[in-house]
Write a structure and sequence with these properties.
Elements lengths: L14 H23 L24 H14 L5 E4 L10 E4 L6 H8 L3 E13 L3 E10 L3 E5 L4 E14 L2 E16 L4 E8 H6 L6 E4 L3 E4 L8 E5 L4 E8 L2 E6 L2 E6 L3 E2 L7 H12 L15 H7 L10 H4 L1 H11 L3 H12 L5 H5 L13 H4 L6 H15 L7 E3 L2 E2 L10 H8 L5 H14 L2
Parallel strand pairs: 4-8
Antiparallel strand pairs: 1-2, 3-6, 5-8, 6-7, 9-12, 9-15, 10-11, 12-13, 13-14, 16-17
Helix pairs in contact: 8-9, 8-12, 9-14, 13-14
Length: 449
């Protein structure tokens, strides 16, 4: 007689549950067979008792698992049958049951192999990242940033519990729990100022920079319609920015301060030509009959070449070819080089006089009224004659006695009478109109700028 046993589905059970159930089945089979061998009969099928056993998935060692698998394999047939036999030698009825639900050994083993966690208590120093603070600054062009204070990271000591997972012979970091934090050095925040002035941004300028007048303009004491005029500033001249207020710049001009509307100014950004125009205008504003010729003209080498070139009266190109000489002597002796050039032009009639052509003497230096040609000095080059006259002027006419003029040499002040062209005229030339003639030539040269 065939007794059929129902086997619990092991798909979702652990290994211990399976083993307990198999053990129960074997015990019941053995007991039943013993009863059969003693002549007992049974009219009903034995049903397997459902054993519910729970075991922790963790804690079963890999060796235990392997042994358990071997036991299971030894208990089951390859055809999924579980069987039992009577140990008596007489003919017996073989009782067996069919396991209709395959035992998933791989899954059971996989579910019961535990992962090991390792915990580590660590104390270490870590950086505290500094923060950044942004501050609006209406005195900066819009969106421009200026670093006011450099940020510095701080340092803290942390005690932390780190958790690692050991899986497949590999250790992976899982998480950490910070248990304690001690600040050793507080961070220093970074401070950045951000510009908000649209007016400064339009002209791309900053407080303290220069603006240039597009036309003659009145400097007002406020931005109101009834504002008083402080002074008038000429075209191309420059003013210094002190601040901004609405559409007005607060500026300084010499000893004056006041307000100028934005429509009357330019900057190097909006019009790069104005800086050069301002420089030239300042030079021209200094030209007068009372100007001090004992100071440099402020002209560049290119300026000297420009004003002394392409003059129709300079037929022999003497002054054009010696433009650099006049410039260099201005730097060396700190004298107005155009004053020296104007003297040479006047005395030599633009280098056409016999003395200038024959003796390379543009100034008639050394000549007397009764014998000008014979008494005039002869030089080996125009440069030599120009420097001789320049040195004589600063030594005897343009500086008081004892003034250091060049390389330790001092002035005698023998003919000193002042530093204007008119004052020099008194002791330098017998022609009373000499000073006016020199000045007019200088004005013509300056105008070529």
């Amino acid at each position: 007689m065939k007794n059929e046993y129902n086997v619990k589905n092991t798909e979702d059970r652990n290994l211990i549950e399976v083993f307990e159930e198999l053990k129960q089945i074997r015990n019941e089979n053995t007991a039943r067979n013993n009863r059969i061998s003693h002549g007992h009969s049974y009219s009903s099928l034995y049903k397997t008792k459902k054993i519910k056993a729970k075991a922790k998935k963790q804690g079963i060692s890999l060796v235990g698992m392997v042994l358990a698998v071997i036991t299971v394999v030894g208990t089951m047939t390859s055809a999924n049958f579980i069987f039992a036999s009577n140990s008596n030698s007489e003919e017996k009825e073989i009782l067996f049951e069919e396991n209709t639900n395959n035992v998933n050994i791989d899954k059971i083993i996989s579910e019961n192999i535990s992962t090991t966690e390792r915990k580590e208590l660590v104390t270490e120093n870590r950086e505290i990242t500094y923060t950044t603070e942004y501050i609006d600054n209406p005195s900066l062009p819009k969106d421009e940033q200026v670093l006011i204070q450099e940020g510095v990271n701080g340092v803290k000591t942390v005690t932390v519990l780190k958790i690692y997972e050991n899986s497949s012979n590999k250790e992976n970091f899982l998480e950490e729990n910070i248990l304690n934090t001690t600040v050793i050095q507080a961070p220093v925040k970074q401070i950045i100022q951000v510009g908000t002035s649209e007016l400064l941004g339009k002209f791309n300028v900053h407080i303290g920079d220069t603006l240039y007048l597009k036309a003659d303009a009145e400097l007002k004491d406020s931005i109101s319609a009834k504002a008083n005029v402080v002074t008038t500033i000429g075209k191309y001249l420059d003013v210094k920015i002190l601040g901004v207020e609405g559409n007005y710049f607060n500026v300084s001009y010499g000893d004056y301060t006041g307000y100028i509307i934005r429509s009357l100014v330019e900057s190097n950004y909006t019009n790069p030509e104005y800086a050069e125009k301002c420089r030239i205008q300042k030079i021209l504003n200094g030209v007068s009959a009372q100007m001090n010729v004992n100071v440099p003209s402020g002209l560049t080498l290119e300026d000297f070449k420009k004003v002394l070139s392409n003059n129709a009266k300079d037929v022999n190109k003497i002054f054009e070819n010696n433009a650099e000489v006049f410039y260099n002597l201005e730097q060396k002796y700190r004298i107005n080089g155009l004053f020296i050039a104007a003297m040479g032009i006047h005395e030599s009639a633009w280098g056409t006089s016999p003395i200038s052509k024959d003796k390379l003497n543009l100034f008639g230096y050394g000549a007397y009224d009764d014998t000008p040609y014979e008494s005039a000095f002869t030089f080996t080059s125009y440069e030599e004659g120009i420097e001789t006259v320049t040195k004589s002027l600063i030594k005897n006419y343009l500086n008081v006695a004892g003034t250091e003029i060049y390389d330790g040499e001092k002035a005698t002040g023998k003919y000193y009478n002042g530093t204007t062209i008119a004052s020099i005229n008194i002791k330098y030339a017998t022609d009373a109109n000499w000073g006016n003639a020199i000045y007019n030539i200088m004005v013509g040269l300056y105008e070529k700028l």
